[in-house]
Amino acid sequence: MKPLGADARALLALTVGAVLIGLAPIFVRLADVGPIAAAFWRCALAWPVLALASRYEGAVDPENSAATRGLLLGAGLFFAADLSLWHLGIGMTSVANATWLANLAPLFVAPAAWLLWRERVTSRFLLGLVLALVGTAILIGDGLRADRARLMGDALSIVAAVFYAGYLLCVSQLRRRHSTLRILSWSSATVAVTLLPIAFFAGEKILPSSGQGWILLAGLALLSHVCGQGLIAFSMASLPAAFSAVGLLVQPLAAAIFAWVLLYERFGWQQALGGAVILAGIWSCRMASRTVTQASPTLGA
After folding, report:
1. Gap between the Cα atoms of 76 and 72, Å rounded
2. Is residue 127 part of a domain?
3. Alpha-carbon distance values, 10 to 97, 122, 213 (Å)
4. In a domain, 122, yes or no
5. Per DSSP, which regions of 162-290 are E strands?
6. Which helix (H) or strand (E) holds 190?
């Protein structure tokens, strides 16, 4: 069997990582701690694993400039804001709604990547982006008819998408020179240090009251963060930032399927159609990105 090329490996890593992060809202919904506390534990429990793996990796960073430190700090702070707002939104609206709205990051990443780094955005890419977003709207279905009880959760999830876009842009630049493990280790430490006092002063329940609660938090940390977020960060060394953001729209589809299986939320023909349209949109964006990459070998390097 012919081994996968770097580009194919990156695409596979992005897809698997997005599916694993689709489990995150399930863990958050079932965990017996507050939503911001869950975000703290997600990174606090993951950090020792990432730090040890980074130390074992033994890679010497090519630079440790002020710009690099700023990007590492920025990635951590953006991610802290994203996780806390998204986790709050999960408790106020449906899993599918919160995950879809929090993954509207392509709307912000694509123009920012063009403005900052002149990543080309073709008409075919924009068509694929629109198609993927339409697919997510179909996937959500009746959930778009927000009532007052869900309105705040939906709003928080939309704001989370803005911060997630900032995180993806920072990681996209960092992955050009630094390892996945170093980036995740530093950003996880920043998230944990930032969110613990916030969860404490917000009066949230911080410690789980059962072994099952710890298992759920461990799953959130190891499956969704170390494996899921790690695979996504790994993929961004080879994929343009704009396409990576669109590819992450696999998350709402995965979250909807997990919520259907584990939380008995609705998943019928309409959700299946939405999932098919999402995948078609991602495929269109992928073809557009490949065309641009072949025309400009430095893109996404």
Report:
1. 6
2. no
3. 27, 21, 33
4. no
5. none
6. helix 180-201
Domain that holds residue 52: 6-110+148-262
Entry pTM: 0.80
Q: Distance between CA 136 and CA 128 in Å, rounded?
A: 12
Token pair for residue 81?
A: 């804001």
pLDDT in tens, 268-289: 777 788 878 888 888 787 777 6
Residue among 191, 162, 170 at smallest CA distance from 84: 191
- Supply φ then ψ for residue 167, to 5 degrees: -60, -45
Tokens 């996209």, residue? Answer: 172
Whole-angstrom Cα distance, residue 290 to residue 245? 15
Report if residue 123 sits inside a domain.
no
pLDDT tens string 9-20: 888 888 899 889
Domain count, the chain: 1
Distance (Å, whole) CA 36 – CA 28: 10
* CB contact set of 152 (below 8 Å; sequence gap of 6+): 92
All residues at 6 or more sequence positions from 247 whose CB lies less than 8 Å from its CB, including other chains: 11, 14, 15, 18, 239, 282, 285, 286
Q: Using an 8 Å Cβ cutoff, are 40 and 271 in contact?
A: no
